[in-house]
């Protein structure tokens, strides 16, 4: 292992992980925490799955809580980057809303493995209040982008919305928690579930024309 | 304490709790598990909050997991009874949908205390697979009643719905997880949040007339 002391405090995504050890730890933690929860996942088990010793984990993270916080931070940042990258910046709002809803449902459902028993928000409840507030800040861009699209649609005369804030939250909630009822291998593919959510969302904003 | 040995196996809501001890344990567990999570709540703490000894808890429940399972079972049964009691049995579907959505949002938001950090579904993930399946069975009547109302509205010619199953789940999810973003003391009262959800839901089913 060639990790330097700097690694132990490098923020997720900073790239200062020459050995790839930090990334391996977070990948193992991502699977295990979702399968077994925070209390049900020991540092020993994360170490075994990452192919290293428990001492090597503590070289990179002061505590199991720091592993969880870094894993959730990375997940929120990567998912938001994927979502934002899916939404065309210069298209009409109805198209951008379609991009957003399809991508968000897809992101939520593609990460549902056989054993995703513990949602991100359930896991986050094991963090300190301060860490939870930091994660809360990372979730703001999601709702901010939705609000921006809804306001654009009103300005363009294509959406008719009574309360942009409540409508943004209602749409986001419906898409974020789709994993609580969707079953892989059931009647609908992920793409079909995404399309059906978009149809409902277009009704919620009273869209004057369909998304293509 | 006058509890008999029968109490220890009495199902929640069976009424076989002459001393009220079982009810006191479940009330204390209801608050503490939501505040501090399953791992963060000891049997000692539940005992202290219920005003009894840890040994008395174990007289009623074989383990902390059994306390959690009984607490969640009671919560699901009581909430469903309240929901069902709020929906007029013989009214047009548009009215019944209004009853359902308003009651469901109210039930979710009224139980949000200052410190509801752990949702029911997050807590349920600490149960055995078998107990989780049993709880899953208790959540089916919620979606069953929603489906029944939507089909009634189609039959009455008042709703236009592409996929009753997805629409039922989407509406339920939006209402069930409203507590993740609603803040007490914010811009909206619980009644206003419920009304705004109903407006969105009536759009989702393309209702031909408003709920009164």
TrEMBL record, chains A, B:
Record-given protein name: TetR/AcrR family transcriptional regulator
Chain segments annotated as coiled-coil in the UniProt record: none
Top-level taxon: Bacteria
Keywords, in A-Z order: DNA-binding
InterPro entries: Homeodomain-like_sf, HTH-type_TetR-like_transc_reg, HTH_TetR, KstR2_TetR_C, Tet_transcr_reg_TetR-rel_C_sf
Record domain HTH tetR-type: where: 19-79
Organism: Nocardioides antri
UniProt key word Zinc: no
Biased composition (Low complexity): 10-19
Xref: PROSITE patterns: HTH_TETR_2
